Amino acid sequence: DVKVTQSSRYLVKRTGEKVFLECVQDMDHENMFWYRQDPGLGLRLIYFSYDVKMKEKGDIPEGYSVSREKKERFSLILESASTNQTSMYLCASSLSGLAGNNEQFFGPGTRLTVL
Amino acid sequence: AQSVTQPDIHITVSEGASLELRCNYSYGATPYLFWYVQSPGQGLQLLLKYFSGDTLVQGIKGFEAEFKRSQSSFNLRKPSVHWSDAAEYFCAVGARGSGGSYIPTFGRGTSLIVHP
Fold first, then answer.
1. Contact residues on chain B for A94, CB-CB shorter than 8 A
2. How many whole angstroms from its chain centre is CA B33?
3. Considering the domain A4-97 in this protein, what is its CATH number?
4. Measuring CA to CA, which residue among B48, B41, B45 is closest to residue B75?
5. pLDDT at residue B76 tops 80
6. Could you list the residue range(s) of the whole structural domain that residue B66 is in?
């Protein structure tokens, strides 16, 4: 059974803290994605990575950075958390588009609250 | 740039009734289209996808969707809704990004409420 796991389901942090959200996939997928999900706004892409050490900005990268040192792991970093980053964060992975199958597999999400 | 519009924020249906969720997209080339479902407290799960070929696509859980190029639409349908179908539904269009992969853009979602 394919799987995308996220390190925490719920996280509470204070303003100004550095926050790490971890995502691991066991499907040997080339692509990995970080989204944030807010009511009425759907899913918005923060960053994606199409290979180890390769990353590209999505639609809302401000205030975030990412790291992909190994193929199976993609980390989202909030350098200095702010209250407007309180949200649900979803990680996803997919095969390379060259493989012809672009279905994304999602993790269960991390609900982050910044106080 | 591609975009997706889901005009209905909420849809309420009775159990056993038919369902249609609307999705309109904007994309210059042939689109890759997806419908995902998110049950409460869960991540998203793929219901079905359209890449090419037959414009009527069958998916899991009894869902189907029809691609209509002339209307830029990809509406999701189910003939008889079950209470377990209550969830959030997302339409997405994929555009080719770096490395040749398709990067989906998601709509804002439609929340389906099912009355007994």
1. 101
2. 8
3. 2.60.40.10
4. B48
5. yes
6. 3-115
CB atoms closer than 10 angstroms to residue A5: 12
Mean pLDDT in residue range B40-62: 90
A65 to chain B, minimum CA–CA distance in Å? 18
A29: nearest Cα among A111, A91, A108, A110: A91
Chain B residue nearest residue A102, CA to CA: B102
> B60 and chain A: CB distance < 8 Å anywhere?
no
| Interface membership of B59 toward A (CB under 8 Å) | no
- Enumerate the domain spans of chain A: 4-97
Identify the closest residue of chain B to A97 by CA–CA distance: B101
Tell whether B1 is within 8 A of chain A (Cβ): no
CATH number for the domain harbouring residue B49: 2.60.40.10
Q: Is A27 left (phi over 0), alpha (psi -120 to 50) or beta?
A: alpha
pLDDT at A99 over 80: no
